[in-house]
Amino acid sequence: MSRLASSCASILVAAAVAGTAVAGTAQAEPRGGQSCTPYTAIMAPGTWETRYDADPTVPVGMLRPIGDGLQQQLGGDITVLYAPYASSAFDQGFSYAQSLRTLEAQLTRMVSGLCASTRVLLAGYSQGADGIGDFATEIGNGEGPIGADRVVGVGLLADPHRDPNTTLSLGNPQPGHGIAGTRSQNFGALTDRVRTLCVDGDLYCSLNSSASPFLAALGKVLSGDDSPIASVIPVTTDSTTLIAQAVKVGAGWTATAAKLPGLLTSLTTLPDLIGSGDFTAAHQIAADLNAALAPTVKAAEGVDLPLIASVIRAAAAVDPSGWTAAESMIADLMTRIDLPRIAADAGQLEDTLWRTVESITGEGPHVTGQAAALAQAGLDLAGALIGPFTSTVRANLHAAVQTVLTFTSPERLDELSRLTTQGFALANFYASNAHVDYGDDAQILLNYLGAQAGS
């Protein structure tokens, strides 16, 4: 059974999750009814642009200018429909994969209801392009509900499975491929009628997986097979939140990782340095540790660490580079240790040792006594700080950091940090200006589809 055929059965399960059946009003004129128009355009909106019970005749979303343009060009010769489906990404009772199955089942039903004389145009945006692309793949390879000869043209806007090696591009060709990877099959008999369009800066359809393995792996999990994490993600959690938190954690650890190997070794010398009275050297270690931990502590603020660890762990399974596996090890550690407490102890130790250094430069017995008291406080804090590192963190964290460094060039080590500082967190795959800035470029896709209909 093909993926599309099996999805028709799975849609019943997905619809049950939402507590309702998929709307049954999305058919074109049924066979045997009134005469059909020579052309039927079926548009698949993107995430959050439609609902499963939407009216398919009402234009919506990024594809509206294309649908309106086709209607203006062809007038009464075309019927334009917008596929109603869940268009969710975890936040409306459907995961992305479940939502995509609702679209695939809807497309099958809509196309199967067309009369035999109408020729078909297909277009999709974002998640809609994901579903339309898969649908066209099955049609082109003889597994769809209609023959490839019925399809006039296919347009994919911001396709998360974009593959420039197998699909002709419109506009300015972009490097990389879609965040969800590439499809396992080409478009078969439809290859010469499929066009893809991706604008500069839209990482959703132009991700370089070799330069950004962590981001690519997250994309495959959140925009593809989410079965490893579907059971742990609350239904109220949207994909933007998941992506933003995963990037926040990853960025914090990449900023910390390069500094930790040496610090983990020198940390064990703190008690000896304090005991011998070398407070200046001890203070420097505490200061370096505090600075190194700061990005990690900031990354953990407001993050559901067990959930994000599960997401990163699932991503590690689909990343052959080893980078995400290292991040997964670190994410797991973050769920087992009290990082804010460790960082607080490091900060307090730094302050105590600095006051000790200042005290020993003074004169008189009261100063000597103060220095001794501070030194003892420093020893107590060092013990409290080293304990968690020795018993829980040190060996595993050291191994994880070494793994990160093994698979990481200096440029890649800063990759996540650069993305966040540029305002290009992974949430942009779903909600960035680049991902929704297709106004002028949509005209290019309209021109292509209109020309196909007129040929």
Radius of gyration: 28 Å
Span between N and C termini?
35 Å
DSSP strand tally: 6
Taking strands numbered 1, 2, ... along the chain, how are they ordered across the largest sheet?
2-1-3-4-6-5
Molecular structure report:
α3 crosses α4 and α13 (339-359) packs across α14. Mean pLDDT is 75; it is low at 1-34 and 418-431. This protein has a six-stranded parallel sheet, with helices on both faces. The relative contact order is 0.12. With 455 residues, the protein is α/β, with parallel strands linked by helices. It contains 19 helices and six strands.
Quick structural summary:
The protein is α/β, with parallel strands linked by helices and 455 residues long. The protein is built from 19 helices and six strands. The chain has helices at 3-18, 64-74, 96-112, 127-140, 213-222, 227-230, 239-257, 260-267, 270-275, 279-300, 305-316, 323-334, 339-359, 365-406, 410-413, 415-421, 428-431, 433-436, 439-454, and strands at 39-44, 78-82, 119-125, 151-157, 168-169, 194-197.
